[in-house]
Structures are given as structure tokens and as C-alpha cells.
Amino acid sequence: MKRLLFFLSLLAALAPQARAQTAAPFAKGADVSWVTQMEQSGYRFYTETGVQQDLFQVLKGYDMNTIRLRVWVNPAGGWSNPADVLAKAQRAQAAGYRILIDFHYSDEFADPGRQNKPAAWAAYPFAQLLTAVYDHTFSTLELLKNNGITPEWVQVGNETNDGMLWPDGKASTNMAQFAQLFDRGYAAVKASNPNIKVIAHVSNGFNVNTSRYIFGGLVANNARFDVMGLSLYPSITDWPTLTAQCQANMNDLVVRYPGKEVMVVETGMPADAPIPTQQMLLDLQTKTRAVPGNKGLGVLYWEPQAYNWMNYGLSAWNTAGRPTAALQAFRNVPPAAGLLVNPGFEFTGPTQTPLGWSTASTADADADFTQAPGAAGLYQLTHQKATAYQVRTYQLLANVPNGTYMLRARAQSSGGQTQCQLYASGFGGTELATTLPTSANWVPVQVPNIVVSNGQCEIGLRSTAGAGQTARLDEVEFVTSTTAATAQFTVDGQASAAEIGTGPGQYQLAATYTGPHSEADRGLQALYVGSTATTLNLLLAGSAESAGGSYRALVLYLNTAGQPGAPAGQQLIGGNNGPSPLKHRPTLDMQADYGFRVSVGPTSATANDVYFSRVSYVTGAPIVPGNDTYLGAGTKTGGVVVAPATLDLAGARFAYFNTPALTANTGNVGLEIEIPLAALGAAGVSVGAGSRIELFAGYTDADGVFLTDVLPTIPGRTTVLGVNPDFTAIPGNQYVAFQLGSGVLAARSAADKALDVSIYPNPTAAAATLAYTVPGTQSVQLNVYNATGQRVRTVAQRQTGRQELVLDRLPAGMYLLKLQVGELTTSRQLVVQ
């Protein structure tokens, strides 16, 4: 695994005498060597609350104090050459950082698998290589010094597990020559400033043999260095093991090589696992600080800001340009919420050993396990067994700042247990617990007023229960009492007042039906769209029951980024209830990826049954539970259907809350759909904050006839639309375009029809063509926005007639194109893979 770049530009003016008098503070920081190249490509950076800032200021907000920067000799494009390093080092110093400079002695990345010489040095004999190493190192440091910058550390070589400058400096074939090359780098550093500490660096910081081989080889061959640098890149499942092994290695190294210190100069974990990453970082910092003799100098994250960039998946940033919760581990007072590992039971999938959690039981360890579905994600913790059982599932939280906390979660319980409690203990006070209420739905449960006085707390779920009795737990939080609960959706077919708003976990109004109802007091009301960090949530409010003698249905179509669904203008597949769950075959203005339907028996029917079905236009087939899945009879309030994990839209959940008529529908109720974001999008294309989706909704009979009610509303429409209508023939775009985290982009604008806009290919791996028509001679402006909402390109000119504009050189990602022609404005989404 490549872990290459190094720490940023430190503030040169940290006085040497001050460092000599007192121990330097623990180094917490990041290698951000890609920052200038990313900025040149249009990237911008934001705080966790969405305020745009310079990256160095954003990281300061996490109490980082150190920046690491890599140096290449003569790289293509100039990025990370000495001049580029100087520009970044000046910014780092101005922001108050300490600086680490990382010499790769290559024109590209150097790592354990490649240590290529710079092209200009390729033919040098060994003696000339020694001179080149010295001169390159010295001249770069003098360039920095002449501009007022003196690094605190300099790294000679990057991840030199087998030496550097191959083949001459390959350790496995000539350790002595590697040591000579390294020592020339050391000499150059000390000639520039004797107070700079020189770092030797290897990867796999958990591997004691690799560390002893390289550091011992350097010592045996009289090469000089001050600090032993390590890389550590664990996974979400093995990090507790690897950080423990890394600690053992660091402790061994400082004893084995007296007078030398250790530092974790690179680390990272998957960007989509911020809480496990946060926990790893907290643990790694604790273990590094504990190295004997205060010889553990610090921990640095490698390129945390590199989201959607160079196929790097170990950043600590989300696709909206904001830091994830992972970086909170660097704060001087880390949040207690970050002390929980795997709070949503999403990692390691269905298992009896969920990551981060322990089981206590004398004979019933198999009574606790994770399974689908979760309250907000894919999985939940379950206590259940076919025989009577007693089990406890828990975490012991360490390094908890003393204070008052609350333990909260979402829970279900069958009831009847002898004991079924969420509890907190061992925090320095009397144990506290709350019994889970009996409920078939997910309900909030909490243990308040946990006063931690000893820096630790055990939290968990414990059950003493009879055969078949069940408790379920999900979305566990351990937070300060002043921390507000994260908004969450409850998939029950209705939007409560608390679920409607503008933040994550809340519904935004996307469209309201304002036309007449061809069936009196029945039909559509409104469409709501919301999202969380892991789900897309849709609510189609309306009343489907017919006063007559036939079934009626609420129908919703969805288009998301990157999927090859049914193109706009193409009649959708359909048929009988046998081959297709949706008989309806409309022709839509938008591409359709998925269709959803809830059909309801008439008021006059005794059973008044409700059926749910859906179809994938991506695969061109019904999706189980596809063909009219029975939700029940009677009031039909919030029946939930969960999609099997083996099929399209795995983990999706659906609920319908029935009302007999619109006058009775006073609480935004109807068809509610929750889809994991991971099930949407396509290869290289994620769906989340900033993503554009398109939606169309209708009210139909059982045989494919569309009544008057559709969203967006067709102005002036008073008669039924009929069987399989062609919505492309209706003026104005007949769909709602919605940007997650923002709001409605377009609904029934006449612009799309007038401008005849298309973009192809989409997705694209290189260039895409935007085609449109300009009625008459008018001013035209195109603005292109990236996923963070930053404008990255603008085209403005006067045009007439049919136009084609080629968009190229856009980095991989998702873009929103806003086209304005005179007074007409429309938008499109473009995906670059």
C-alpha cells in the first residue's frame, strides 16, 4: 500500500533555544502535499459547518500544529518540486505550523515498491549520486531558509524498507551504499541547520522485523539519524491489533537504539469509516505519547483533504468538501462521542463479533449478534435465542474527559424479559440503567446524567430473557449532556414536525400538488426529500383509497447519478402483475432508474388491502419483494418492507400510512422510502450531499391510467391523463430536480423544452458535450459547480441557434451545470469518472 507523502511546512521561527529548554509539544498534523494541485483543479475546502476556509485554517480548527510536505526532484507538472514546496511551507508557517520536509529523491512517489532515481540522475555513478543527494537536500533547505523557513524535522527518503535510489542504494543488495546515501542527506540537513532533526522512515509500523532491519542496518553502517519514522495504515477491522503492535515496536526501537526518538509520520483509514478512524487515531496518539522517556514525538495523517482525488480512499474528508468526524481525534479535548467504536453496527456485517463490542455470558454468547435491517443503516444489534438466555453486549470507554454525559440509542423490544436494559457503569458513580420500552418500532431510549469522574465508562445492553424474547439496539451515542441528538428519520409512512426542516436527517418540501383532484378528496398532496450521511429518504404524501370499487395507487419514479436507467423520452417497461410489478408505462421527461408503487383497496372493500411493489429500469426487471408485496389490511399504518441484501437497492425500506381521504390526511402521511446511499450511484459515482436527483410522482388506477394528480403539477389540467401518457409532450419539464442538502433546482420550468438541452456521454471518462438551442440571439452563460457547490468553470457569450459546447479537463466527480439563456434557466448533472 502506498503511503508516501510527508509532513508539511512547519513554522521555521520556532526558536531553537526554546526547544532545547523545554520538551516540544506533541506533534499532531497532516501531510497536505496535494493541496496546491487540488486548488488549481478547482477544489475548495470547508469547515465541518460549511464555512469556506483555507485548508491550513481548517486543520487549525482541529488543533493540528504540524504540516508535512514532500519534495520531488523534477516532477512532471512541477507539483512538489522545491518551488511548490516553498509556496506551501510559507502558507504553513504563516498559519503557525511546525514543518516537516520529506525528501523522496525521485521525480515521483518513492515507497517500498519503487525507489526510482530522478531522470537527471539515472546515469550517475555512485560517487556522483552521493553528491546529488547532498546538493539537492542542501539547496532545497537553503531555499526555505532564505525565505525565513527552517523545518523542525527533515525526512531523508520515504518508506525506505529496502533503501532508496535503486539499484545503487537498494538495502537488500547493498546496505552499506544505502547507508552512505542516507548519511549524505543527513550531512546536508545538519549543514543547513544543526538543530533540525533527521528522520529515517519505513512503512508497516507494526512490523518489528522491518524496523530493526532498516534502522539497525543504518546504525551498523555508521549512518546518522535522530528519529525513526513509521507509517501505519490499518483497516477498520484490524486497527486495534496493529496499533498495539505498533506500540510494541516503538517501545522496542527507543530501547534498542538509545538516544533516538520515534514518530508516526503517516497514517490513515478509509474515508467512509470516520468513527473507526477517529477511534484508531485516539488510540494511536495515546500509544505514541506513552513511549518511554517521552520519545514518541507525534502522529500525522496523510493527505486528509484528498477527497475524490487520485483514487485515494483514505482521506478524512467527505464529498461535500468538509472534514469527517475522524479529525476530531486531533482536538485537544476530543469529543466523547468519538470514543464509541462501531456505534451503528455497520462494520463487519452480520456477525456474532461486531467490531468494537464485547460479549459477556456464561452459556449464551450466541444470543447477541448483528443482523439486517438497522434503524438508520444496514444492521442492528439483536439479543435473541430459541431458549432462555442471559447476555451482555458492551464497550469499555477509556480516556473519557471527566464530565456529565448521556448514553442514548434507538431500540425495539418484544417485552416480557426479566431484564432488558441500556446501562452505564464503572464511571466513578452508582450504575445507571434504563429499561427498553416494549415496541415493534424503533424508539429513542437514553440514560442521562452519567457523571464521569475516573476517566472511563462501560456502556452496553444486557438481557435476561425467555425463549424467543427479543431486544434490538442501533445508533448508539455517548455524548456530553449538552450535545443535541442527531436528526433521524423513522420509516413509518409519515413525516412528523421534527422530521421536516433543512438539516441532515430532515425532510425538505420538494413539490406541492396545487391542481384539482379528478377523484374527489383523493390523490396527491406533496413530495418531500431528505438525506442522512448514509440514506436517501423520500415521502410521497397523499391518500390513495378510492371511494369507488377499484384499487388506486401512488407511484413514484427516481433518477440518481451515474445509473444506466431508462432514458428520457423512452416508454417505460410494464405489463401485467406477473412479469412486472408496475403496469404503468409512461414516457417521462427524465431518465428513470427505479419505480415504486403502493396500491390500496377501495374504502368499500372489507379487507381494504395494501400492496407494495417496485421495478428497476437499471436491470429492466421487478425487484423482490417486487410483485405486489402484501402490507396488510385495515388502517395500514406504516407497514415496513425490507429489500433483501442480495438484490438491487439492498437494505431499502418502505412504509405506507393509510388515510381514507385527503381531508383526513393532516399529518404529511403516505408512501415513505429509505434507500442506503451505498445502493445508489454507480462505479466511481457516489450519491450524497450535493448530488442531484430527479423525481416524478403520480396517482393512478390499478390498470395504468394516470389521473389528474402528478408532481410537479400540470397547470390548468382538469381531466385524467389516461393510459401510459407521454409527458414529453407536455410543455415544461415534467419532473422535480432536487439537490440533496440544498433544495429544489427546477420544477415545471419551460426552459428545458425551449432550450432542448442534452448532455452526452454522461457519465463520461473524459469529455462531455452539452447541446442546446438558443431561440433568437441572446446572452448565454453556463456555470459549472463541483460537488461542494463551488463554481469551477464559467462560459459567457452571445449565441443563436443550435449549439454544442465540449466540457473537458474536469477532475473525477459530480458536477451541476446551470445554463441561462436570456431569461430561461435550466440545470443538468454531469458525472466524470
TrEMBL record:
Annotated catalysed reactions: The enzyme specifically hydrolyzes (1->4)-beta-D-galactosidic linkages in type I arabinogalactans
Highest taxon of the lineage: Bacteria
Keyword annotations: Glycosidase, Hydrolase, Signal
Pfam family, one: Por_Secre_tail
Cited InterPro entries: GH, Glyco_hydro_53, Secre_tail
Residues in Secretion system C-terminal sorting domain copies: 759-832
One annotated GO molecular function: arabinogalactan endo-1,4-beta-galactosidase activity
Signal peptide: 1-20
A Gene Ontology biological process term: pectin catabolic process
Enzyme class: hydrolase
Enzyme Commission no: 3.2.1.89
Family that this chain belongs to: Belongs to the glycosyl hydrolase 53 family.
Protein's UniProt name: Arabinogalactan endo-beta-1,4-galactanase
Native source organism of the sequence: Hymenobacter cyanobacteriorum
